[in-house]
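Lab meeting notes turned into a lecture example. A postdoc, R.K., suggested we walk through two folding results consecutively so the class can see how the record format repeats. The first protein's sequence and structure tokens come next.
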Amino acid sequence: MVENANNRGRIDNRQGGCYDHETTNLLNNQTNNNNSRNNNSSDNNRDEQNKHAKLKICSTAIGAILLHLTYGVYQCASNFGPYVCAYLGADPAYTLWIFCVQVVGMVVGMLLAGKFVKPIFTKLGLADKWRSIAGGFLVVAACGLSYLILTITKNFWIFVFVYSPLLGMGCGIGYTAPLLALRAWMPNNAGLAVGMVVCGFGLGGTLFVQIQNMLVIPPGSTWEQMQTQIKTDEDLAARIPLMFLYQALIILAMQCIGVLMLFQKKEDASAAAAGAQGLSVAEAFRTSTLYGLIGFMFLVGVAACYVQAVTKVISPLYNISDSWSSNVNMAASFVNGFSRVLWGVYNDKLGFKTSMITCAVLLIATMGTFGFVMTDGAEFVFLAYWCMLNLITCAIFVLMPSATSHYFGTKYTTDIYAFIFSGYGAAAVLLLFVNKPLIALGEAHGLYVTFCAIGVISGLSVFMPLLLREPTAWFKTTAEEDIERGSRRSKSRISKSNGRTPVDHRIINNNKKEEETEPYGSIGGSSVAEAPTRSTTIQTGGSTHERLSLLLHDPDDCFSPSGAKRHSSVFSTSSTLGQGHLRT
């Protein structure tokens, strides 16, 4: 009788909504097990996503470097230029024309990329990575047409004004696409990302110099022998046009592989809007920073263009063989490539101004001492100095793209960088006009005078960092633009950010004070001052029963007392066991 009464009491208690301790503990254990399984599943999904993201980053890095390797043929003018000049009966000093017209073509290509090519790809719904292969096709076309020109017309100026502009424009159109793709995956290491990609540009010079030497230069030949053999040996002369045809095929294959390995990072709408902020080209030209960057690119570019273009013009003056000069070109391109990674890391650690000053000081010291240290036949001294000059001058190709994004935002990076790179183009044009006087000056007074003159000009770049200004007074974010339109939602976001994003006070209001955040209401006696997003947890008996993640976009509705009351049904449905409580 007593046992039956106890059983009836236990049943009555269950019907009344109360549980004994044994049943409650059992249900709590089941709940904890379910939560553990859910957490493990969530962790596994997160690990899987991280694994996929790392694979995409590695693939994008390899693809971007591969694409820039193909653009590295741009640096080979000083290597093949003398052979082409001898083949076409032109003065070897005209090698500078091949390189400098390439630079001008690259400036034009970057301008076209920002104004026409990138918008067209966007309208067609194509990812920006396809812009790189569009530029690659122009590079392939430049090499392929050069084969026809050298075979049919054999005119130096036709070669220069077909090969150089096409190759330069191809490099300019595709140059920034791999940079931006990898930089999007590595936002906290932008300098390293840029350095890794443009490292491929430098190493491309090493690769294609080696290919050209294998295809053209007989082992152990000197420059004087090459000049004679090209004019008299038909088999050797026929190798020069074929060199461009083989380059075209190699570049085409590398371009196709590289663009397929490139992954464009997908961002949600809010992240894309936040990441696509920045000054327009017109606004950038109103800042002193743009002129500082253009000036630095121009002044260091004078030395960079000279070093890139005249390796095999300078080396015979010191009685250095053509084969050794080719080895110097290859080694210098290798140093040029890997040094870009070092400059990227150095810039991430110490900043743009320190990096630019370091570059300028090293350049003055190296250019100033080269002519005094270099002697006839000193092959290893020539190698060491030429590698050092490449190590220093390659800094502009790492610092300037990163500085463009840092100082002016990412929205118009391609357009603004094209104008900054025009400083390098201006340096190339200047060298076209002063090259002959510089050679005459070196022959009359010694090459040390020429190198000192270039060192003084490039050394003026040490003052350019003084023009740089941090972008704290320039950027106006999308949220601040919403404020101007009177969006109350954006006001709450700006209040929460507490001035984290720099504001253009000249555009909004010079006297605008920071807004104070007013509490929207209270829930459970606690004041809720901000946060449009809240994570809500229902707990029962010390163990979590159910977790709700609620995205509450309108704080006035969801966190005001009336709003909390309207949404109370959402919270109350989660409580099924005992006395629960709400934690926000």
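The second example is placed directly after the first for contrast:
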Amino acid sequence: MVVKIAAIVLAAGGGSRMGANKPLIEIGGQPMVVTAAEAALAAGLGPVLVVTGFGAERVEAALPPGVAAVRNPGWALGLASSLATGIAALPLEADGAVILLADMPRIGEAELRRLIAAFRPGAIVVPVQGGRQGNPKLFARAFFPEILALRGDHGAKAVVAAHLDQVVEIEMDDAIFADVDTPEDVAASRMKAPFPALTPGCHPLDNAAMAQMPGLVSDAMAAFDTGGRGNVRRGLHGAARRADDAFDAARATIARFLGAAPGEVVISAGCTAALNLAAGALGADLAAGDEVVLSQLDHHANLLPWLALAKEKGLVVKWLPVTAAGRLDLAALPGLIGPRTRVVAMTMASNVTGAVTDLPTVAAAAHRFGAVVVADAAQWAPHGPFDAAATGADLLAFSGHKCFGPTGIGVLWGRRALLERLPPVALGGGMVAEIEGNDFTVLAPPARFEAGTPPLTQAIGLAAALEWMTGLDWPALHARQRALTARLRDGLARLDGARAVGPSDIGIVSFTLAGCHPHDVAQVLADRGIAVRAGHHCAQPLAAALDLAEGSVRASLAPYNDGADIDALLAGVGEAIRMLR
């Protein structure tokens, strides 16, 4: 027997708190009501009825083909009125109906097909997560009379409560709770929409290691790679000229993001490669007894190149310590920098404690003695465009994959006068001006530092990512991230044995659980679809200074994270405590 299941999409409410007809708010490039209706059609539900009320004409005009509108003139009387309108309009042959809310844009075809697969006559199919019921729900025809009898703001959950013995529960992800009810919900849903990887049930909280990539970035790279590729520099055919133009445009976009000139932007294979380039170029002029100041807060990428140089050349390494709070102890700085200081290498923001460095203060102390300041901006750059020169750094590096761009690309920004006096580190095609006998001359920066074929496709992708970042409302995003960070830290404080590490200035929250190894905690969370990172985070000097022998668990936020991610993480940490102790 063929089972016929209809869909009722409730889109009658006003949503005036957001100053708009809520079903028409666009998430992912189209009105939410259209997303709901198209998901129902794709899942094979029929007929698909959209109940309209407030702003009915506009809602009905937006509906896709194959969807019928049923107007409820009494929509202001409450939810029950719209439910009854939809049920009354169903054909007699409908064996059941899925009741969808138009403001749940993360419910898609897959979720609806799971409901349909669990249907049986005389049952109510309800999605749950952790014992908590969500939406949408699928009602067999036997329950239609009770839905018709509802009054006021009573929703269909009242019918569910009256027939618990006939409820079929199916476990689903948190999409079943993701309704859009406030301006904050709208902002969060819109931030997720450009990212194909952000499917329901995933909680990407490992952004300090790798941010997700908006579809427009992969589209930009694919357009270049499939549109007739050419290599840069000196090619005369069409594809080569297009490659030159694309590479130049990418460099210009990166420069704008940094408030810099294109000639100050060196494109590298990553942030680590950029920092090694800086160390290699500066190291050529260093001698035994010269001093380099490093910090206990830094990532290995900004430590190991200098430690290796120190071994090779007899340099003196001095360490700026961290406080117990996980910040740099700037009070110790005057005693570390002096006439023999040649380089001060510092992070702009810690990838473990989330502490932001007062780099202008560090730079002022270094510049008094003519030292060069090398800044690791890997964790700073993902938080929006900034003025590289205003940081006080002389050389500054960041990576593409943390800035919502592709892997395999990074940037080294440098003050023009400094770049012009630094020697190349890698040699080959594209960086040499002329070879005469046993001698050669090199090109001006930035080409001097870009030997061989550059990461051209990746540069195009990074430029697309930075253009996308530049168009965001960063003050609003920073405020939302601060609120989410506080919510996470407050939640951790209420869990037995949980301890946050550091101040979390930029949405990085590392923590430990007494009696639980960080790797075990991360595995419990991974099993629940929550991505975090565990260990020393390539910052062993910091782990030693803070007595974190086993490391920590790190959650790191991006603009697309929302309250559901925080709630899922806290629930997962609670589960880890129960399982691991």
